[in-house]
Design a protein that fits this description.
globular; seven-stranded antiparallel beta sheet; 11% strand; 42% helix; 14 helices; 11 strands
């Protein structure tokens, strides 16, 4: 039986004309159904929840269709949505906390860490048979998660400046007390005891504040990937989801087979591997999970592909995932594309790029040259339906605007 997957995507809200991040989530979400569309800690971001799918084609249709609905809602207010770890033109004016008692507590307790939560990620859920299995799988797949971060890296800019990193979101995210790589646990009871201990310490207030790179879901029978930046191109979401599902499937088979792997108890290098992936993206070296030594990103990505190829082939995903991975290596990370556009033009052009990629468009907006007596710009028309699919699967993206399957609340 094919293992089911689903994703949560977070999006920034920006003014189309200025490119500035704005706190308008409540306005944009009016009339959109929950739990498909919902708020985040800061009003400058919104979240979408996909349905639960067996095929990557269906996941792609869902993701692009949901993005389309959100873009239409934002366009009505002169706004656009951006799927990226950070947006180039963020600033403190965008800080406005969503009216919620839990969020108010987080702002009061964590202060600037919460104030600067102007970042977005994509989370992938994969079905697991039980929590004990989920906890054991975490240890087995953790050495490979930084490769998925590198594939998703899309946050080179922060507050209008180039950080020198491919994923500055990772650096901001790891300031939270429970963010980053997770250790190994023998079973779910041991993991749950550690969560209760953290809550009892007063450092976090609930299990929802477990922000590790990977975690068993607190309310579903899934394993949740949390390390990745939000991805401008929906194809990258599919790539990450396909690879994570294959990693989980591969790990489960290894753990259930003869000579099951045993945790070596060494995890200190995982944080260093996360840092290297955040710094380099796909444009530099990564830490090879097999050797713990530096290696070219392309070599590490292809090593991951070979490791999980049997699982990808069993799910019918090999052709699509392999093609998407090779395209990602050829095109470079989103951070690379953003930085290249900003160097050639400016940060507003960079924002236009990620708006277009979020919409699934291959050509970004051409802005007219400014004139002294220019009339105030009209609200932009909603974007056309996405036109870029991934050809290995023969996906017809025109189906993206269908109603789609029912969604699982709170995925």
């Amino acid at each position: 039986m094919t293992v089911r997957i689903g994703v949560e995507e977070e999006f920034h809200l920006v003014e189309v004309e200025s490119g500035l991040l704005v706190p308008r989530a409540d306005t944009v979400l009016q009339g959109l159904p929950t739990p498909t569309f919902t708020t985040e800690l800061q009003q400058a971001a919104v979240e979408t929840n996909s349905g639960v799918h067996e095929s990557l084609d269906d996941l792609y249709r869902d993701v692009t269709g949901t993005r389309r609905r959100l873009d239409v809602a934002a366009s009505a207010h002169g706004l656009a949505v951006v799927a990226a770890g950070t947006v180039p033109l963020a600033g403190t004016a965008a800080v406005r906390t969503t009216a919620d008692d839990r969020y108010r507590h987080m702002v009061d307790e964590y202060r600037r860490v919460a104030d600067e939560q102007l970042i977005c990620g994509v989370h992938v859920h994969v079905d697991v048979p039980d929590r004990d299995t989920a906890v054991r799988i975490m240890c087995e797949v953790s050495p490979w998660l930084h490769v998925l971060l590198a594939l998703s890296a899309s946050s080179p800019f922060w507050l209008g400046a180039d950080t020198g990193y491919a994923s500055w979101r990772t650096m901001l995210w790891q300031r939270w007390p429970t963010a980053g790589p997770i250790g190994c646990f023998a079973n779910a009871a041991e993991y749950d005891a550690s969560v209760r201990e953290l809550i009892g310490s007063g450092v976090i207030s609930d299990a929802g504040m477990i922000y590790y790179d990977i975690r068993p879901s607190a309310h579903q029978q899934t394993l949740e990937l949390r390390i990745c930046d939000a991805c401008p191109r929906p194809e990258t979401v599919v790539l990450v989801a396909g690879l994570f599902r294959a990693l989980v499937t591969d790990a489960r088979q290894r753990l259930e087979g003869p000579g099951a792997p045993v945790c070596a108890g060494r995890h200190e290098w995982l944080r260093a591997a996360d840092w290297r992936a955040a710094r380099s993206g796909l444009e530099g070296a990564l830490v090879d999970p097999e050797t713990h030594k530096e290696a070219p990103a392309a070599q590490v990505v292809r090593g991951l592909l070979e490791r999980v190829r049997p699982a990808l082939e069993a799910a019918g995903d090999w052709q699509v995932v392999h093609a998407l991975a090779e395209k990602a290596l050829a095109d470079g990370s989103a951070a690379h594309r953003m930085r290249r556009t900003a160097a050639k033009e400016d940060l507003l052009a960079c924002t236009d790029l990620v708006i277009a990629e979020t919409r699934g468009e291959t050509v970004r907006r051409c802005r007219p040259a400014p004139t002294a007596a220019a009339a105030p710009p009209a609200a932009p028309a909603p974007s056309p339906a996405p036109t870029r699919g991934f050809s290995p699967s023969g996906l017809d993206v025109s189906d993206a605007l269908g109603t789609g399957p029912a969604r699982m609340p709170g995925l």
